[in-house]
Amino acid sequence: MIMKIEEIKEYLPQRYPFLLVDRIVEIELGKSIVGYKNVTVNEPFFQGHFPQDPIMPGVLIIEALAQVAGVLGFKSQEKKPKDGYLYYFVGADNVRLRRPVVPGDRLTLKAEIETARKGIYKFKCTALVDDELVSEMNIMCAERKVQVD
């Protein structure tokens, strides 16, 4: 299953410049997901991190993985932000950042559900560029019902 950006936006509340998933290329509902972020020199964070040697901030790699995990959680349950549901990022364990991500990279984002209990989800996540491991971590998200206007 492929999800393009307009469908991804149905499952994530983030918008530019904070939407960090461009496409979903694989999804096995309730199990795993693979997406990517095309990293371009035009990203707003490169203006200050670092202009002479641009590197994607590690915290944004973590956020991109949390977003792809959120798509998996939402899509697996067919819940959407417009229906009053959000996934809050609540933690990351065993975070390792192994190499810089720079303009021109395609950041592949993978997440697998490890556990899902009472609205708390734990994901095993990895990020790669050209099959080279960039980052790995365990991410925790909490599903919450929110008021929709």
- Strands ordered across the widest β-sheet: 1-2-4-5-6-3
N-to-C order of helices and strands:
HEEHEEEE
Main beta-sheet annotation: 6 strands, antiparallel
Name the CATH superfamily classification: Hotdog Thioesterase
The domain tally reads: 1
Please describe what this structure looks like:
18% of the residues lie in helices and 42% in strands. The protein contains two helices and six strands, in the order αββαββββ. It has a six-stranded antiparallel sheet with strand order 1-2-4-5-6-3, covered by helices on one side. The longest helix is centred in the middle third of the chain and has 20 residues, at 58-77.
Key features?
single chain, 149 residues, alpha+beta, Thiol Ester Dehydrase, Chain A, 2 helices, 6 strands, globular
Short précis:
By secondary structure, the chain is of the alpha+beta class.
List the SSEs and their pairings.
Elements: H1 5-11, E1 23-28, E2 32-38, H2 58-77, E3 85-97, E4 106-117, E5 120-129, E6 132-145
Antiparallel strand pairs: 1-2, 2-4, 3-6, 4-5, 5-6
